[in-house]
Amino acid sequence: MKERRAKIIVLSILAVILAAAGVYIYSYINRFVYNDPNLAGNTAGNINNGGLFCEYNGYIYFSNPYDDGALYRMNSDCTNARKLSDDRVAYINVDGNHIYYVRNNSGSDRVASILHGYLFGLYRCELDGSNPADLYEKQSGTAALCGNYIYYQHYNTKESPSFTLYRAKIDGSEDVKVSNTTYEPSSYYNGRLYFANIDENHNLCSLDVNTGSISTVLEANAYMADMEGQYIYYIDMNDNYALMRYNTANRIKEKLIDGRCVHYNVYGTKVFAMIEGDDVHGIYRMNVDGSQKELIAQGDFNNISCTSQYTFFQYFNDNVTLYRVPTIGKITTIEQINVR
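Now predict its structure.
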């Protein structure tokens, strides 16, 4: 009788241990992995151009213009493209575990989306496109992954003002207002968001994501800010929309190129820019100090997106056809790329 009771006790203890181990293993496997707080989910240049491309760990995640903006992934050399989601996406951000994007499934061709969930919103999914989850289910503007938060422009007609700046925690546990002003959260560097304060005085400012305090970096009539190391790049509306950079260490301003800059993207040692009214109206590449300026193609271009091997862009009047040139190497011609 005692032996039987002892066996029962031992088996009960083993059952409790196994159950606890199972719970621990399940929790460990399904734990949410957080980021380094200084991680930026995409480059500021790509976010400023709509966040249509994002490179991470040997892959390019992109909005495929040949498939109505659906989410795709391909190798960094543009091989092995495959669809991850039918969602029409923009402002793509990626970390080691998830893809984050703004969904816009509006339009008559997207009626079927109503049957599968929200038409709009800020979403997170696995790196293979599975398990989509909404962080915000209504219309959103610019969105950028900053450490463990997505800062995004939040639209809600039931609030006043209706267009504000929010941040959502990547695990979905938090979604709070940061400011009533719709700052552009494109450029994140060392714990601060850098932006042109276009709703107020157009100064270049920074927001400390830990304290929420806002500081003026440079008094200017600026927009489209991009903080890269000690330099902040911007378009100066007081100087015929010239592309400028400001050295935050020695407080020296430099004009990189004459002519009206419409779009630009800084990547590593290069700057790509759409310039009007210069020697030739078109898209240019130059070094980050403005030297070695070269014309890539004549015409009107937009959606300039840079990755380690290629820079992608489109003609302004053709939002389907995609072109590319080497980001760093010699450019001989623009190449049309088909991803279907």
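The chain is about 10% helix and 50% strand.
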